[in-house]
Every structure is written in C-alpha cells, then in structure tokens.
C-alpha cells in the first residue's frame, strides 16, 4: 500500500495515548489530537442531504399504513364501538378495538397503574379507542372517520389547580392525588427564618410545555417469521424492546428494535408507546409491514409534555447574603396517569446553594390530560424559574449584585444526598465568575443603569445558574471495537444518537485512542439484534456513559495488538508502544512492526476489543454546572421582549467535540426561550380540549426569537474521577437557567417581575397598562 493510501485511514503523524496494561484503568488524556476539537458530524452529509434514512422514511415492500382513532373527549366511557362500516371501506385490511381479543392487553402507564390497550375508560383527550391498517394513509384516515363510537361523556378536570377542590370530577376512583405528598427536610426552617435579616415569599407558575420533535412519533413494524422487527423513532431501542416484549408476552430475543436516526425526542421518546403495540398487532393480523406514525396533532395530545407547576418559595437571607432557610412547595400534574408531575422540581432548591435549613414538599395531581414524560432536564427548569428569580429578588432586597449573592452560597458537596458526598468537580463558581467576566456583566449593568430610563425601550441584564442531577451512569454499557486487517475500524454500540452527535463523539474517542481518522470508523448502533445492550439516550448521560466504554474497547484492541507485536518481535508487550501506524520497542527503536503486518492480525483478519463502563466513583457525585447571562430590550408600549445577547457558561467536565458542545448550548438556550416566552398548552375550559395542538398556534421559538448574539463558554475543569474521559454531560443543563435568566433581565429592565410563564406581549402589556393606571 502506498503512503497516500494509508493516510486515508490514519490521522497524519499523530501519536496515540499510552496503553494501560490489561486490568488497569487508563490515565486521563493529556494533550489530545482529536478530542476537544471542532469536529463536524461524521453523518453530516447524510443528515443534510436527506440521504439518512430515519424511521419515518422507511418504506418496506407491501407496507400498510396504520392510524389510531382517539377519544375526542377528555373524559369519557366507550359504551360501544362499531367497526363494520370501516372494515368495508376500500383498502382497509384490519380494524382493531376494545372488542377484538388481541387488543385486550394491559398497557402499563407506570409501575403502579395501567390500562387496557383500548381501555373503555378514556381519561384524556387522545386516548386510543381503535386502530386501522389500510393500503394508503388516506384510506386509513377515512376508515377512522367511519368507525362509530358511542361515548358516555363524563365530567372532567383539566386544571390541576381545581382538581383537589371539593366535588371535582374524579380521574381515578381513589381520588385525584397521585400517591402521598412527598416531603424533604433538613435542618429547621423556622429557626432559619428567625435567623434571617430578610425573608421573601413568592408564588410562581410554569405552563405545560410540549415536546415538539421534528420527526413525529411512530414506527414501522413487521414480522419476520415469529420475530417482530420494529423500526422506531426512539431514544432507546432496548427500552422499546423490553416494553413490547412485556406487553405482547414475547421473549426479548423475538423482538428486534432498530433506530438508526432520530429526528429529536427530548425525553418523549425514552419509552415505548401504545402505537408500537398497535402497529405490531396490525402487522401480525395482516401479515404485512405496518407503518404507523402519529400526526402532529396526536403528538401534542398523547406522547408527553413538561408538566405545569405551581410553586411557592420562601427564602431567608442574612445581610451579607448567606442563605439561612428555604421552604418550597409545589403542585403539578403528570396528567391522567402517574407520570412524575412534580418530579425533580424541588431538586435545585435542595441542592444548588449552600443552605442548612430546607424544607420542600410536592403534591402530584391527576387531571384529564395526556400523560407527561421526561422533558429535557425534568423538573429543573421549573424549579430554576422559582429559585433563580427568588435569588434575584433577594439580591435586590439586599442591594447586592445577583452574581455576588450566588457566589456567597456555593457548595462543594451535595447537601440533599445521604452522607453529603462531595462533587468530583464543582464548576458553579467558575461558571458564574468567568461567565460574568465574558459577558461584561458589571459594565453592562453600569451602562444600562446610567442610561436615561424615560423612553419606552428599556434594557436589562439577567442571570441564573444551575446544576443537573445526573452526570453519566453505568454500568451497564458494553461496546465492541473491531479493527480490520487493513487498520480500519468498526464501532458497535447499542446507544442511540438522538441528534446530539453521539456517533461523532464516539468516533472521536476511537480516533484518539487508535489514531484512525473518524471518517474511517464505521458505526453499528441502536439495533437490539446486532449491537450491545445500552440504556436509553437521555439524562445528558449518553456521552459520559458510553464514551468510557468506547475508550475501554479501543484500549482492549491496542492491548491485543501489543501482544501480537510482542509475539512477532519477541519480548514483552509492556516494552512496546504505538508509533504512528507501527508498534515499536521502547528500548530499541529498530525493533518495529507495522500494525497491518502483524501476523496475528493477518491470521485472524480482525481484532475484537470489548469495553465495559465502570461505575461512577464511590462516595462522590458527578454533576454538571452552568450559568447563563442575557441582555434584553423591553418595549413598554407593546410588551415585546427582544433578546439581544445570551451567554451560556457550562462546566460539563471535558469538552469532547467543541462544535457539538456549542450547538447543544445554542439549542438548549433556544428551548429555554420557548418555556420562558412562547410555549404553553392551552386547554379550553369548557371542553377540556387542547386548542393549540399545531405548529401554527403552539409557538416554538424561531431564529427570529432568539438572541442574535449567542456565546458558548465552556468551563473545562479537569475531572479525573468522573470516568475515564472526564466528560459529565451537557444536553440538559443548557436549558435549565434560561427562562429564569430572561425573567430576571425583564425585571432589571422594567421593575416588573413576571412570576408566571410565558413572558409574552399579551401578559406584559396588560401589566404595563395596570401600572399606567396606578400613576
Ligand atoms: Mo432526556 S428528558 O433524559 O431525553
């Protein structure tokens, strides 16, 4: 092979890290060749050109199209379903409903509570009532319209603020409380408030936000003999496999789930849905592949949301800014089934700032609405909306800078966890300090406060900070790296790339260890039939969970190559090291063998390395930290808020790919802008139905709504303990503080504190109008 040809595979002239002896943990990377660089996606061309085949693109021969009939009522009882007319319609091949036996399966909405697949008791608008498979999508839709359902419409409650009132309609027989009120307590809050120089109390509300991934939810299911094969838009192929096997009573080995590309999920595709079971049943009945993707309207109703929250926070603080007590209570709703309506909403109150006396309580409530699902940093943006506005208000009360107030209360250990374990790294201080410096916080405040404030355009700056409760996990994660006889590489892992660049980062890890160019690495992933077990991609844990296993697998390859070289060259593998494309003796550089010439490799044709994720460090907590800063301009005539600048400072351990890192920051801030300013579910109080279930009326922030000036500032603390890559996860912390930072900036600009989302012109102009009346 000519030199130029070899350059196709290898990164030119680059060294690879030392290879630890078998059984030993590798050293943290020193100078890196690939990791930390701005590396475009290895599948960028496929994604941008449209060549990438997403599950919703899959079209198999003889495919039928599935569609689901859903309850139009928030609360109703199905008395009778008549499918006769639908069955006789052109192109219709199968109709299933509560009356057909295969649909008499139990769907577990949660560990505690389930329903039938087509349950006659429909507890939310959008619950499945029947389904059709037909030759074309239009025939399937038409057939739905021909199914006659006799509903007994029942009284409903869709507002959690009314669901615990006397006489409220009951979602379930046991009442509208989900389990018991959860209470957390440390220290003595009453004592803490007594010690405080200032005490503030405020209520806050966040509206229900909908996941709106670009790719709709759905799958293509077909039976290959007795094996069910599902191509699904999912964050976790193994999670779907387990749920489908459980519901259909199949062994795991008979359910293959494939999910190569994914057009977004944000938590709503961490789990399987009823539609997967429905498509599988229709495919079984018809003996044909069934493609079942929901409509956009359906996804708004029945595949998850970020629960609305009602929060009260009372905070005590000393004159010098020391927090003495926090008392927090919260109600929320995960909808009609247990779905974590208040999950993690109080976590930041418990753990973000040093505070000896904390009490939190949370009440989760059933309502006749679609079940919630984890949504990018479950609970955290809601909690930050309250806590970070409260910190801002306390700072104003004390005449202190909000930055200084936060710096006064930085923890080094987790106060809310048993035994107060320390964090491996606590970048909160660095995020706030370096973020403030890069944003020119002090100067910006001075500039704004010195400018005349008599016009209708008012500027303001705001900031907020956060941590995220997860920092990678494992085991389990098993990864296989195969080195072929020509030196090119195959990486095999079960994890999904949910659009965050996982494949690219993993290829970079292999590249760093083996010296092979990232483009030369073929990746097999997210297929229960051919790849290793992996937990779903979520919790910002995909990189910190999978990358260490990938690194271990690559090292395992190197260890075997060194052993082969020792056999060829004589001596001990420990006396050898990699040099470019060859392996040389550390003591005698003339003893050398090219990797591709190793006789062991020639004989076997391939070297297979297996890597496992070790546990997180015992007795320590791995959490990412962040702070965000923004500048806004508020029009007090129209109530419009323009975002001028945003800066996100993130301490997520090692930066793996600077390009995907920055893109996560921009994307997370954009999503936070949605929660703060534009997104909310509107339920009609008279009918209980969602009225803005489309992309026209449900407003996602666009490029025109975000700040034209967005800055990503990585705070790269070395974390040698988190895992063997030092990465801690990024996808979720980037969206937690955004809404609160905007609210704080609006307050700085106008003196108006918006405690309820969304901060929109409608709401702001009403407040300004009130104010005008007062003066
Ligand atoms: Mo995320 S809500 O864990 O996909």
What does it look like?
The protein is α+β, with helices and mostly antiparallel strands and 775 residues long. Helices cover 27% and strands 23% of the residues. The strands form seven sheets. The protein has a seven-stranded mixed beta sheet, with helices on both faces. Bound molecules: dioxothiomolybdenum(VI) ion. Dioxothiomolybdenum(VI) ion binds next to loops.
How would the blueprint of this fold be written?
Layout: H1 3-9, H2 44-49, E1 64-70, E2 76-82, H3 84-87, E3 92-97, E4 106-108, E5 114-116, E6 121-122, E7 128-134, H4 137-146, E8 148-153, E9 182-186, H5 189-195, E10 198-206, E11 218-224, E12 227-232, H6 237-248, E13 255-258, H7 274-286, E14 290-293, H8 296-302, E15 309-317, E16 323-335, H9 347-351, E17 358-366, H10 380-398, H11 402-407, H12 428-439, H13 441-450, E18 457-467, E19 478-484, E20 489-493, H14 502-514, E21 521-525, H15 542-569, E22 576-579, E23 582-585, E24 592-594, H16 599-604, E25 606-612, E26 625-635, E27 641-651, H17 658-678, E28 709-714, H18 738-750, H19 761-774
Parallel strand pairs: 1-14, 12-13, 16-17, 20-21, 27-28
Antiparallel strand pairs: 1-7, 2-6, 2-8, 3-7, 4-5, 9-17, 10-15, 11-12, 11-14, 15-16, 18-26, 19-20, 19-25, 22-23, 23-24, 26-27
Helix pairs in contact: 10-18, 14-15, 17-18
The structure holds dioxothiomolybdenum(VI) ion (MOS).
Dioxothiomolybdenum(VI) ion binds at residues 235, 265-267, 270, 374-376, 378, 538-539.
């Amino acid at each position: 092979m000519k030199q130029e040809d070899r350059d196709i595979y290898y990164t030119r002239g680059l060294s690879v890290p030392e290879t630890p002896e078998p059984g030993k943990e590798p050293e943290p990377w020193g100078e890196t060749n690939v990791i930390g660089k701005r590396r475009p996606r290895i599948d960028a061309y496929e994604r941008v050109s449209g060549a990438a085949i997403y599950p919703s693109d899959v079209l198999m021969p003889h495919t039928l199209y599935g569609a689901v009939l859903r309850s139009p009522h928030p609360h109703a009882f199905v008395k009778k379903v008549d499918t006769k007319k639908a069955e006789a319609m052109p192109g219709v091949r199968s109709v299933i409903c509560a009356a057909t036996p295969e649909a008499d399966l139990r769907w577990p909405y949660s560990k505690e509570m389930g329903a039938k697949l087509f349950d006659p008791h429909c507890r939310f608008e959008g619950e499945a009532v029947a389904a059709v498979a037909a030759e074309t999508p239009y025939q399937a839709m038409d057939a739905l319209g021909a199914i006659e359902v006799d509903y007994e419409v029942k009284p409903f409650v869709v507002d959690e603020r009314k669901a615990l009132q006397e006489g409220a309609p009951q979602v379930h027989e046991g009442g509208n409380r989900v389990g018991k009120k959860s209470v957390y307590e440390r220290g003595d809050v009453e004592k803490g408030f007594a010690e405080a120089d200032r005490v503030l109390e405020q209520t806050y509300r966040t509206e229900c936000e909908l996941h709106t991934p670009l790719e709709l939810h759905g799958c293509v299911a077909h039976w290959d003999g007795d094996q069910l094969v599902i191509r699904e838009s999912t964050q976790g192929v193994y999670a779907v496999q387990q749920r489908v096997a459980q519901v259909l009573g199949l062994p795991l080995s008979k359910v293959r789930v494939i999910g190569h590309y994914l057009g977004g999920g944000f938590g709503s595709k961490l789990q399987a849905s009823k539609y997967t079971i429905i498509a599988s049943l229709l495919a079984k009945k018809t003996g044909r592949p069934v493609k079942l993707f929901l409509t956009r309207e359906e996804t708004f109703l029945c595949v998850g949301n970020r629960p609305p929250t009602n929060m009260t926070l009372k905070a005590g603080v000393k004159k010098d800014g020391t927090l003495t007590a926090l008392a927090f209570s919260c109600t929320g709703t995960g909808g009609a089934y247990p779905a974590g309506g208040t999950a993690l909403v109080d976590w930041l109150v418990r753990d973000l700032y040093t505070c000896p006396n904390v009490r939190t309580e949370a009440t989760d409530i059933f309502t006749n609405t679609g079940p919630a699902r984890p949504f990018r940093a479950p609970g955290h943006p809601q909690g930050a909306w309250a806590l970070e506005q409260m910190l801002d208000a306390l700072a104003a009360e004390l005449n202190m800078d909000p930055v200084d107030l936060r710096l006064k209360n930085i923890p080094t250990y987790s106060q809310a966890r048993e035994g107060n374990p320390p964090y491996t790294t606590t970048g909160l201080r660095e995020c706030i300090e370096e973020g403030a410096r890069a944003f020119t916080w002090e100067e910006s405040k001075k500039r704004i406060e010195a400018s005349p404030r008599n016009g209708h355009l008012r500027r303001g700056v705001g900031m907020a900070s956060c941590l995220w409760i997860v920092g990678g996990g494992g085991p389990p994660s098993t990864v296989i790296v195969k080195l072929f006889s020509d030196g090119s590489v195959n990486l095999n892992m079960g994890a999904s790339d949910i659009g965050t660049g996982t494949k690219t980062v993993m290829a970079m890890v292999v590249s760093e260890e083996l010296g092979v160019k990232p483009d030369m690495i073929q990746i097999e992933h997210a297929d229960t039939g051919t790849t290793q077990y992996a937990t779903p991609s979520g919790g910002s844990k995909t990189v910190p969970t999978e990358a260490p296993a990938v690194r271990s697998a690559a090292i395992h390859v190197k260890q075997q190559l060194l052993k082969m070289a020792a056999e060829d060259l004589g001596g001990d593998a420990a006396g050898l090291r990699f040099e470019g494309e060859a392996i040389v003796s550390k003591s005698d550089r003339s003893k050398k063998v090219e990797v591709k010439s190793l006789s062991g490799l020639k004989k076997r044709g391939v070297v297979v390395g297996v890597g496992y994720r070790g546990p997180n460090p015992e007795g320590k907590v791995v959490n990412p930290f962040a702070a965000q800063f923004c500048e806004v301009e508020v029009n007090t005539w129209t109530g419009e808020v323009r975002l001028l600048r945003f800066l996100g400072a993130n301490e997520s351990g090692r930066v793996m790919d600077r390009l995907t890192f920055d893109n996560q920051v921009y994307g997370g801030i954009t999503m936070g802008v949605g929660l703060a300013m534009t997104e909310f579910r509107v339920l009609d109080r008279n009918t209980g139905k969602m009225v803005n279930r489309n992309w026209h009326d449900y407003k996602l922030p666009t490029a025109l709504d975000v700040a034209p000036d967005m800055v990503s500032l990585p705070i790269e603390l070395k974390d040698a303990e988190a895992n063997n890559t030092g990465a801690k996860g990024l996808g979720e912390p980037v969206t937690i503080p955004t809404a609160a930072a905007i609210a704080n900036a609006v307050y700085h600009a106008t003196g108006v504190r918006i405690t309820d989302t969304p901060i929109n012109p409608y709401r702001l102009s009403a407040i300004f109008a009130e104010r005008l009346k007062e003066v």
